[in-house]
Each structure stands twice: as structure tokens, then as C-alpha cells.
Amino acid sequence: MSEMLKNLNRESQNSENRVSVEDQLKVYELCKTHLSGHWSDVSADQLVIKRVTGGFINKSYCCSLPQIAQTGHDKVFIRLNVDCPDKFFDKTHELVANIFASQTDISPKILGIFENGFIAEYIDCHYFTAEDDLNPRCVALLAKKMAKMHSLDVPIAKDSHQFLMKNYWDLFAAPIFESYKKGHIYEEIQRHKLQTFMEMDLCDEMSWAMEVSVGLGGPVVFTHNDLMRRNILVRNTCHTNADDLNVFIVDYDWNCYMFRGADFADYFIDWCQPELDFGGNDFPTDQQMGADFADYFIDWCQPELDFGGNHFPTDQQMYAFIDAYISEMSALSGDSYTKRVVNSRETLVMEAKIGIDENPEYLLKAEANNVSVEDRLKVYELCKTHLGGHWSDVSADQLVIKPTT
Questions:
Q1: Which domains does the chain have, with CATH numbers?
Q2: Which strand (E) or helix (H) includes residue 296?
Q3: Taking all residues of the chain, what is their mean pLDDT, rounded to a whole number?
Q4: FRET pair for 15, CA 20 to 30 Å: which of 84, 346, 378, 397?
Q5: Are 256 and 164 in contact, with CB atoms under 8 Å apart?
């Protein structure tokens, strides 16, 4: 559903955005069968159907009744899953996850389900943005939704984190290692003269991060596993603190039982970062994608993104989200939740940071724009030793340190 927002109100003349007669009839029959009422009284050519572009593994549509037949749900979102052989995408699991999330107000209400998709209520909303990161109500709402999601008892395999951790390397490790040796990652290291990465073995560091994430022993819960901004929707309201403000988590393609830190990491890695207008330029052809599919995801003919250009949130800044999460988990699980060290602020911060350390692209951009860990510690010790006072009361990661050029 998150793919719908950008193109919903923009008419496109491109043929690939037009709805084929076959799909138009399919959408009409789905609405007529599952929604009834006025949806059964209109003809297929009376429905206003717009193709929602941007999805990689599905077809999505926004469907509206004509003005003369407005009803309770006069506009809906329809998602049709296409055949996807990838072992990571279990369409049955995805549908089950969407139903559970819908019933608990984590995602928009599902109005109908069918073999290869679903119909959901239409929400007038926008993607979660850097501005929303600074709105305490939005942050608290998202944290509470994540807590609800992590508390769900979804009837899918509970040991799927072992499968995901193992097959993550099968799917991603080979191209990443190859890129590190002589591809895009290698070029980025050389271009930015990232001394730390020139002297270390990034592949070993990634392996270490995976081992540590397992060694932390964080709870395995039902997770989203792709909690980027475009999978978080914020209801549009008359002002930022309106009573009907709400946040929804959508698109459960990657859902499974996994270490909870994965979702925390996905959120904080985007915290207050510049917006990426992904898809703003023409979508590549199959031939163009075939040249180097992995690098397409990084920067296919898109505006330059200074990812990591802003500072990663300090522990103090992370607490707003984490405290709201802990509060909701306590309400859902009882007061005993906060009595366990594994559920402390400090532990959740650590799980989030370890999850982020597994993302090599973020590390490269962050290293290019920020101070290395070694230099940060050196500067911290100098300030602490020679300045005293409040300089001795803060930690190394609380200092704001910028390199001068």
C-alpha cells in the first residue's frame, strides 16, 4: 500500500500507468463481489481506477465510485500479488500478517480478501518524513504501533529468524562481497578516501555484526523487517496534532519472526535524514536493470542522495521513540515487562545500533560524512582531560563533532 501515495493524485500519460481492459474488469469484479452495495450498482466503465506505480512484486490500484454513487467506502485500495518465486516472499504469510495488522489498527482496515490479494480502506495520508520524526505525537504513535505488532501472535513459523539469518547471506552476501572487492562499494571507499574501510575487512565486520546481533539474545517477535519510511503512512490532518492523527504500518512482504532490533534499526537508520525522491525519474527498462540490478537500487538515474549526511540520533533522541514503545509494551504485557533488563532503554538502543551496523551502504555514507569512531574517541578523551566540567559528564557519542575541511 505504501507505493500508492506519490502517484495517486498525478495523472500520467505513460502507457504503463494505464489500466488494461483485463485488469479493469478484474478490479470491477473484485469490488462487486467483496464490497457489494453501490459497488454492485455501477458498471466497470463507471469506476474510476488508477494504477498505483512503484511496486516491485505486486500490482496496486486505487478504485473510486463515481460521484453519483458515493457511499461509506467510496474509495478503496486494491493489491494484486503477482507470482514471485523468491523464497523470501510467502504470500500466505503476507496475507495473514495483513489481516492481523488490520484487526489491531496497525494497518488500514481490510475490506475483502481473495486468493492473491486484498481490498483495504483508502487512507488520505503521506509517507513518514523527517518532519514527522520531530513530532512527538507521530513518534509515539509509531512506537505504539510497533509495540502492538511485536505483541501479535501470528500463526506462522516461530523459528523463521534462523531461516532468514541463514538465507540472508545466500541472497545478499555474494553480491555485497563482490561489490566490496571491485564494485560499487569499493569505488565508494576509494572515492571518499575512507581510510578506516581501506584498512579493515568489511566482510569480517559484517560477519561480526551478525554474530553480535544473535549473541545479544534479544527477543524474537513478529517483525515487519522492512520498516522504511514508505511503509509507514501518516494520516493527513488539518494540523500536526489533530485528534484524528494516526500512523499505519503497511506492506508485510518480509514479515516473519525475527529479533525485534531489526525493526528498530530500520526506523532509526532513516531518522531525520534527507528525503529520497525514489522513482522520481523514469523507471529503468529490463535491459538497463540487467546490467547491474544491485546498483540500480542504490542510485539508478536518481537525484544524488546524501544518505547519512545528517547525524545519527543520539541515545537521548532515541529515547522518545523507545520510551513510548516500552510504555505500550508494559500496557500490553503487564508491569513485569519493564523489570527485565532485556527490555531496558539501554538494551533496546544497543539492539537498534547493532541492526544498523549490518547495513554496509549506511556505514559507507556515514563514514564519508561523519567522524570515524577512532577520531571521535580521541577527541572525546582530549576534551574530557583538558576541559573538565560538563565535558566530563557526557559520553563520546553525545558530543557533536564535525570535521573541518
A1: 15-122 (3.30.200.20), 127-351 (3.90.1200), 359-404 (no CATH)
A2: helix 293-299
A3: 78
A4: 84
A5: yes
